[in-house]
Amino acid sequence: PDSDESLDEPAFLNGSNDLPIMILLPNDDQTCAICKEKIGRPRLAQQHYINKHHEVSLEYQCSKCNTTNKNLHSIQCHLPKCKGETDKATKENEGKWNSNFQTKSGLSQHKRHAHPDTRNNERITELNTTKNKETKYKGAKNINQLIAQELGTQNNKQVGEKRPARNRKPLENLTASNKPNPPAARQMTAKPPTYAKRTGIRSKLKRLSKDLINREETEPAIKEAIYTDSKDPITIKQLIEIASDKLLQTLKPKKSAINKKNKKPSEHQKGKEWSWTRKRANKRRIYKYHQSLYNKNKSKLASLILDGSENASCKINIEEIYSSYKKKWEERTAFPGLNGFTSKGRADNEVFESLISEEEIQENIKAIKRTSALGPDNIDWHAIQELESDGVTLVQLFNLWLIKGHIPNKLKQCKTILIPKISDEKSLEDIGNWRPITIGSMLLRLFSRIITKRLEKACPINQRQRGFRASGCSENLATLQYLLENAKKSHKQIAVVFIDIAKAFDSVSHDHIFQVLRQKELDNHIINLIEDSYQDCRTIIKTENQSSNEIFIKVGVKQGDPLSPILFNLAMDPLINALEELGCGFKTAAGNISTLAFADDLVLLSDNWEGMKNINILEDFCAQTGLMVQAKKCHRFLISPTKDSYDVNNCEDWSINGNKLHMITPTESEKYLELKISPWSTAKQPEAANLIQNWIQKIDKVPLKPSQKVNILNIHAITRLIYQLDHTDAKQSALMALDGTIRKAVKAWLRLPESTCNGLIYSSTRDGGLGIIKLASLIPSIQIRLQRMAMSSDATISSLMQTNEIQEKFQKLWTQAGGDLNQTPQLSNPASLITRTEEITLPDNWDPNHKQKPKYKTPRNWRKDEYENWTKLPVQGTGISNFQDDPDSNSWLSHQTGFKERHFIAALQLRANVYPTRECLNRGQRGLPTLCHNKVTETCSRILGQCPSVQNARIKRHNKICDILADEAKKNNWEIRKEPHFRLTNKLRKPDLIFSKDKEAIVIDVTIRFEHNELTLEKAAREKEKYYHSLKDQVKDLTGAENVTIFGFPIGARGKWFARNYNILHRLEIGEKRQKQLAKLFSRRALLYSLDMLSMFGGKSA
Question: Is the pTM of this model over 0.85?
Answer without folding.
Answer: no
